[in-house]
Each structure stands twice: as structure tokens, then as C-alpha cells.
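Same chain as my last thread, 273 residues:
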Amino acid sequence: MAVSRRERFKKINNFCLYYGHGREDDLGRFELAVVEPLGQRKSGVRLIKEKGALVLAYISVLELSMFHAQSTELRPDDFLCVDGVPLQNISYHNWIMDPRSDRWRHRLLDKAFDLIEGHGYDGLFLDTIGDVEDKRLPSAVAGQALVAAAKLVYDLRNAFPEHILVQNSGLVKLRELTARYVDAYCWENFSLQLVNNREWAIAVARQLIQTGRSYGPRTLLLAEMDQSAGDGNSRLEHLDKLNFAKETGFPVYLAPPGYTGGITLWLAEESFI
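reply #2:
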């Protein structure tokens, strides 16, 4: 009897995340590859899978580029607002969408079906969903948005019971609502917490471990490597990240800057569990 995707995922020791184009041979060296669908052909996804890797499609759950053509088709109540003003992620020039919007939810589910059924992905990497934990939101709006985001994950699980769902961010309040529905959490840029407040990072890791024991989801660690990877301080920081992964038992991937600069192949040969 064939082992299901979700069962295979429970045993992975390494993964990579790459938002560039192609590189099927390199991606296939990992047990799990997270890719940007715009950078991969359907034939490429099939090739990566044939090499033995599970392949997840990146999908932005709650952010839309201000320059995206679709943004002109949306209505005011599709955007998450504070005092009537739509929230933005200025760093990436994105609008933050409202998970309570039926129109946005339908668009997102349609995209998910296209990626899973149309392109053959093994699951979804749910990015930007953690925006519902944005501190700019008033408590009443934040509470409703949290529930709506969790309901969206629930709907995805019902729609794709055999496929992998990885939730990126939303590790505090949203985690408590989605633990029964996701296969893993991704802790992106965990290294920032290690530098700024190691005790807090350790506390978060313990919470994630406990959630995994209680409900099953794993945790993946993700961080971008520094541009100055050759200097001594950077090497020490990288070792610190890898040691944290060993201590927690979480698979880790240290990506080249921007997640498009290449693939860190040596991590395909390592196990951090």
C-alpha cells in the first residue's frame, strides 16, 4: 500500500524553499521543496516529484500586490481596514486582505484548486496568513479576523484532506486555532528572535513542540543567510541557527538572500532531527 503524502511528510529530515525559476534537479535532492508556482512549469513540478521530493506551492493567503491587476477588481470590504483605511505591508507594497471577505475567500480557494488539481502540487505553503496577528488591528477586528483565517484553513483541509498544508507565521494566536488542520508550521526568520530575545524564542519553540505532541503538526525553521556569509560573525550566527535546530528537533533551511539567489544544496545532505 502506497504511503500517503501526509505520512511521508511526517518523516522528512530536510526541506528547501526557492522562489526562483527552474532548478528541478537541485530541488529534487530534498525531501520537500516549497516553490513559487510562477517559477515552475507543470512538467518541472512533475520532474521534481519523480526525483522523490514532495512539492508545495507557495500561496499568499492575505496579501496582494498593489500593482496586481486583480486589485482593481476588488471592493472596499475585501481589504482589512483600520478606521476605514486599508492596511498595507509597506515593505513589499502589498494590500492586506480581509479573511472575512467571501469574494476574497472564493478567489483564494479557486487558486488553491488550480494549484492542487491543475498543476499536481502535493500541498500548499500558506504565506501571509499571520497578518491577522498584526498589532495595528483593534481587538474586536483582530478577533474576527483570527476566526475567519482559521475557518479558511479548515476549509482548505476539508477540500484537500490528503494534501499537505504548511502554515507560515501566525505562531501565537492563530496557531491555537489551526493546530488540528495543518501538517506543519513554518517559523520564518526565527533567527531574529534568537538574536533579539533568545529566551522568548526558546519559549515559542516549547509551545510549538507541545502543539505538535498534542495535535500533530511539525515545525520547520526558515531563515535567509546574510550577504556577508564569509565573515566570522556570520559563520557563528549560522552555527547558532543550526544548533537551535538540533536542540529543538526542527528541520531547518538557510536560504540565499531573497529566496531567489540559489539553493543551499548542502542542507539536502544533512539531518537535524
